[in-house]
Amino acid sequence: MKQIVVPELDHFLREKVDKELQNYPSLMSANEKMLLYTLAAKVYTGEGYIVDGGVYLGGSTFSLAKGLADNIRVKLPDGKTIHSYDRFQVQESLIKHLQRSSTLAKIGDVALEKGDDFLPVVQELTKEYSEYIEFHPGDILDAEVPGPIEIAYWHVLKNAEIDASVFDKFVPHFISGKTIIVFQEYFFEGLPFVKIRQEYFADYFEFLGESGAAAVFRFKKALPKRAFSGDPIAKLSSYERCALIDQAAARTVVPDRKLLVELSKIPIITKEQGQREAVRALEDIETRYHRQILDAALPGSGESHLLRAWRKIAQKVRAEVAA
């Protein structure tokens, strides 16, 4: 899938990806790590703190901290600059990655099982830049906000409750015309609530570009207080929410990503408009993205993420209708 970067950072991002970033054990791509490094090294001004929401083994943390260390132009705010939030507990879905030889080569012979605390591993991996990093283990909803926020990286928005609560808690601390927000999982088939909320408040954010599945925005202006009283997203109809997902899909110039984003409408349609309407929506997507689906299924191309996502969602909906 073609790699698109943030246009206004393009002259920085053309640089060769730093080998340390490339080799750091992470589920992030080298380009995504380079994006965070560049934001901290070239864009960050010291006016606010950096929020690192969703750490895993610290790929985002390391990238931001290394960039900050290379940023010699700024005076840093009081205390630690980067605030990293995670439960730091091994989830079953991560065990396979933790057992990869490339990961073990970096973390050492550490036997981590489901539920184990892996904060010590992350601290060891990022110790070179520990002077910049404050770790907040536990529920991000219980954690304190450090102060005004200049960069926010989100990989922690795994359900609608967290998404709404993080928005209410952190967005009031964004700096108008300054704060850069990176949504790690935006242009893909999951987490529809992230796209719906961001697009609902689109007038308050400027879309800067994309890198992999990540979307990058700048906070333009303060939201009205009513945006934080109750959850306006919960009051939207399924048709309104699907329209906002279409709005998100329109932001990417990569057809494969457009297809993935549109697939995130299907569970909403299935649940609230019925299975037959979901089948019609799938058929419409299949017609418009016929070439992308065919290309993903070509012999020798392997089973791409796009093809797996398409097959999983399409087969589930059609099986439910046939039952």
TrEMBL record:
SUPFAM superfamilies: S-adenosyl-L-methionine-dependent methyltransferases. InterPro entries: SAM-dependent_MTases_sf (IPR029063). This is Uncharacterized protein.
